[in-house]
Structures are given as C-alpha cells and as structure tokens.
Write the structure tokens for this entry.
Amino acid sequence: MEESNLPGMESFKAQGSDNAGEPVVEAGALRFRRPDRAQARMVPCVLDDLVPAGHQVRLIWDVVEQLDLSAFSAGLRVQVGKAGRPATDVRLMVALWLWASTEGEGSARELERLCEEKDSYRWLCGGVDVNHHTLGDFRVDHEKALDELLTKVLAALMEQGLVKVRRISQDGMRVRASAGSSSFHRRKTLEQHLVEAQKQVELLKSQREVPAAPSSSRGQKAARKRAVEDRVRKAGAALEALATVEKIRKEAKGGTNSRNEPRASTTDGEARVMKTGDGGFRPAYNVQLAADTESRAIVGVSVTNSGSDRALSEPMRQEVEQRTGGKVAEHLMDGGFVNFDQMGRAQQAGVTVYAPPQTSKKKVDPYQVRPTDTAEVAQWRRRMATEEAKTIYKERASTSETVNADLRTYRGLDRFLVRGLAKVKCVALWSALAYNLMHFGKALLMG
C-alpha cells in the first residue's frame, strides 16, 4: 500500500501543485494508506484448503469415486503408451455435472466460468481445465450410462433397505422447452422456409468459385454455410415432427380443421405447446417422475412430448419394476392419469391404484358405479369412496409435490437449455441423480 498525505476530511479544500507537478499538501493533513493495484504478489494456495472438511461437494466426490462409471468411458480410445492427448477423467465430469445440478446450474458456459472462479468447482477440478464444449457434450451424450447409474444408485439404496417400491407416487412436470412460441409454424410456412433455405445452400455452392471479398475470411464463409445448412436441417426436422402431430390428431379426432391446424417449431422440432402449471400454454416437455412414498427417493424418470398423462401410468410402473427389481403393490396418481384400460391391467396384475375419479359436467357422483364400468373400474370407484383410500391418496401430494418442488427450485429443472427428447432426458436424469445423492449420499458411503 502507498502512504499518501491528503487534506483533512473536514475541509475538502482543493489543493494546487508546485512547479514540479507534485501536489501541495498542507501541514498537519491526514495521512492514509492507499491501494496500489499495480504491484505483483505471490499468493500461495493449496486446492484442498479451498473447501472445509464438511462441505457437500466433498460428499459428491466421495460418492462418485465409489460408483462404477465404466459406461461413461466406453467410447474413449486414448490409452497409456499411445499417442494422443489424455481424456478428462470421467469421474471429474460426472462430479461436476452432479454438483452443478445440485446447485441448480444447467449452463455449460456458466459451469466453465464457475470452474475458474468458485472454490467448490475449483476444488473439484484440482487444476484440470475444462471448456464449455466438452462439458456440454458430456452432459447429453450419455443417456444410457446415466440411466444405468440411476439404477445402480437405487440398487445400493434398496440393498440397505432405505428405498422400497411397494407404494409409489407418480406425477408429471411440464418444464419449459428451449424454444419460443413464435418458432411454431404451420405446414405451409415450414415448407416455404425449407425452400428458401435450400435456395441459399445452392447460392452458396454457386459462389464457391467466386473469389471472396477482402473482408470475408475462410472462417466466415464456413460459418455462413453452417448457418444455412442448420436452417435446412431445422426446417426438415420441423416438417417431420409436424407429420407426427398430424397423425396423432387424425387418430384422436378423426381429422384436423384450419382453425386449429397443427404447428411445429423450427427451433426444437420435438417440443410441444402444453398447458403449464400456471395455466398458460408454452413450449414444454412432460417430465414424468415416480417416487417411493416412504423414503421420497426418485425411482423412475421418463420424458415425453405428450401434453396428456392419461397413458403414462403403466409405462412408468413397468420402468420402476424393471429398474429396481421390486414389485409395485400400490400406485398413487392424480386424476389426469386415469385410464380405464391401464387400470384394469394394473388390478389384474395385483396393483392397487389410488387415483380420484373425475367429476362429470352432469354432477353425477364420481364414486357411483356406472353401467359401462368393468369389474376392475367398479372396484376402483368403490375403493376411492372410502376414508382409508382417501387418506392413502394424500401421500401423493406430500411425496410428488415436494419432489417436484425440490427439482424445480434447487436442481435446475425449471427450464431446459438443451433441445430434443434425448438431450432433455439426460438433463432430467442428472437432476434426479443429484436429488438422490444429496438426500442419500451419506448412506451410500456407509454402505
């Protein structure tokens, strides 16, 4: 620090200068130590001292070191004794994304910045530099490995008796997609976009032999080519998605009309406009979660672009049983999941379904058995009319709603920053894994 003489704070008188340019200071003025930011300093740092002993990031790393992550490195070819730059340790990459998901961070660029500036991430990296391209690719390139990792974590928890699947609760979250509402267009507009993009591709090909302008570099030309080809790809993907939507609508309603003509997004062709939790309609994905009501561990994760839950209870139950090896005896779900065919098969398989019957516009008692009801549906209506069933059903809200709130508020599942069902599924799995590890990490270490 420089020591400087300054005028008394009570006077704030402007000072002149002498002929040499030095400030003239009155006798008796106050002296201060002023910062000198031009000086160089050597600051010693031990990375292991960046976080205290009980920090949660240490728990994440300790758990990751015990997990079998061989599936994440299956595609790597760099070997000891052979040429090539070493790959970044998959344990570090998994730990980084688990810790980022724990803190609700879902941006690869932001994660790169955090690895340089925030102590917990710097501690994890241990001097290994990572860039957002590597981080972003790793996050979405291992769907199968992530799914297997969730299965392994649940198997360890079930072996200790901490997680059971005798009674599960299922709910769906509509999570905002990375697509704007204005990116959805009808078939005629999409076909026009595709034609225009293809014309631009042909124009670029015809200009390939023309000498470039002095201000146009080879990189700039390549960037323009990639941008135009990307437009063609997105327009084609949107048309393919639109064909799927049109087929579904025809099967469901027997046709479409011009007033409600289906649309698809040129930004994310697999995203769909859905009714979200606040009552609005936005581009979103439907994330389905199943949780054990006793431990509140997430035992099932799936993602769909269907705005309806009506056909999703049976696939989720099958996924949970296949993932855990357990037998679901009781399945809790809200009224939006009620599907009489799936309910009948569940009853025949020995699964008791707890879901509220939906009220009709005719104000008929929803618990009253209908003449058209099958034996299984009639049994379900009579069961849900009992106080015991209503008490059991209350566990759905206390389980699923708290899990959903945790993921949406703390684990980054409030909005997707990636596009496409496969990538969205990966992000949902990262969030579910982070949730389970934060709640059961210590138990996994003791096991």
Summary: The chain has four domains: 1-41, 47-78+87-140, 164-179+273-419, 181-265. Residues 6-15 have pLDDT under 50 and may be disordered.
